[in-house]
Amino acid sequence: MFDGTINPxxxxxxxxxxxxxxxxxxxxxxxxxxxxxxxxxxxHKIIGNGSDESIGLNLTExxxxxxxxxxxxHFQYVIYLSSxxxxxxxxxxxxxxxxxxxxxGSKNNKIYMNNFLDQTNSVYQxxxxxxxxxxxxxxxxxxxxxxxxxxxxxxETIGSDGLGEMMYDIDEDNYDSYPLMGRILFFKIPSLTEExxxxxxxxxxxxxxxxxxHSISYTATGTEGTVGFCRIMIPITIIEESPTIFVNGEExxxxxxxxxxxxxxxxxxxxxxxxxVIIIPEFSNIILVIMFAFSIFSGVILxxxxxxxxxxx
Length: 313
What we know:
By secondary structure, the chain is mainly beta. Helix content is 3%, strand content 43%. It folds into 2 domains: 6-129, no CATH class; 184-303. It has one helix spanning 285-294, and strands at 6-7, 13-16, 19-22, 26-27, 30-32, 38-40, 45-47, 55-58, 66-68, 71-73, 77-80, 88-90, 93-95, 99-102, 107-112, 115-116, 121-124, 127-129, 140-141, 150-151, 157-158, 168-171, 174-176, 183-188, 195-200, 203-210, 215-221, 227-235, 244-247, 255-260, 264-272, 277-280, 300-303. It is globular and about 55 Å long. 38% of the residues are buried.
């Protein structure tokens, strides 16, 4: 940027206060030279050439910076956290790289809710946090071998929750205590500040926020005959009451209402792929219509009874 915060100057970035947003894909490396900012990729890509010593995002000696919503690939070092501390790396997808993080001399950085798809190595030195505890979890590791038959802080309660039973060992100083069992996707809810996120081993497509029907729909598909799951963090502004889940018009055999708090609900449920899913706060005649319509349309509905006034931002 013109103030020297982001290099190179040609990077397609817009600045609003302390938020720097990528507005298109970018080929090359980006350096950040200011603390306490948010770098929001908005789902865009940063792509390298895979050369030795190439760096995707350079945060050398930075503190208090958040990196989110990026798709980064083809670098030797994706995030360079040399002598950096108290930064957040969250909501990113990383692939085709040698190291996820160069972290020599770094500490107390939080790296969670990312998709690490196919890395040979995860981190070069440093001591950092790779999860934010239970029930939120850590990261999805594409090369992990894990199982999910238990839930809870100690993973001792029978029943799946979308988190691996075994921690993911990165090196002797770094580990992910609650690795995710599927890829994580974030969805911005129009006119609201909240995001909806879904962790799933299914393909999640065609998400639609219908405010006239006060509903959310998407398709969740996978290989025929396999067992799929969704772990959904739903803002209370969408569904206030305890929801009921229907899979192809029937309640699934297994649902884990992991937690409710003042702002969100976290729910896990499983199904045979592919399936239609409906999540509602209560059964009503309009839901019968929706369920009939969904018998010919694959998707997921999350519905709440709202008052007649439209939702405001």
